Known about the structure:
Distance between the termini: 31 Å
Largest sheet: 5 strands, antiparallel
Number of strands: 5
Oligomer: single chain
Strand order of the largest sheet: 1-2-3-5-4
Radius of gyration: 15 Å
Amino acid sequence: MTEDWRDDRTDWRHDRIGAALRGENPTVLRRLTAGFAVIGDVQFLPGYAVLLTDRPEVQRLSELTRPQRTAFLADLDRLGEAVERACRRLDPAFRRVNLEILGNTDGFLHAHIWPRYTWEPAELVGGPVWFHPRTHWTAPEHALGPRHDPLRRALGEELDRL
């Protein structure tokens, strides 16, 4: 993946939620109750996924009503379990998932689902995923692509089962 899209205002990544609502976001795995399950743009930890709210104006979990929060968190639970099941099936080195709602870079409500593996370097496996080198987020070898289609299918199948 290159950074060129950041200058292209017509690129779907400038409005991920709007693109998902319009059916134009190619990373969408499934429409859930309160948002969209999407596969991550980068896959240096295979199975990385994100839950996007379906309300583009919402920046924080606290901006949702209690029932909307419950629905969003239930979707997060479902996507987290789907990632866990799919990754465990595809890689025996799967360890666990980390769930995070951060919002420090993108100003819309979303949650990260990071699978973790025993093959990660020893100095990184026990810490937050953000300790991985910054180059992992931009390196072409980690960019989402056609080689991830089996992973996409596995994640979608697990979401359908849950």
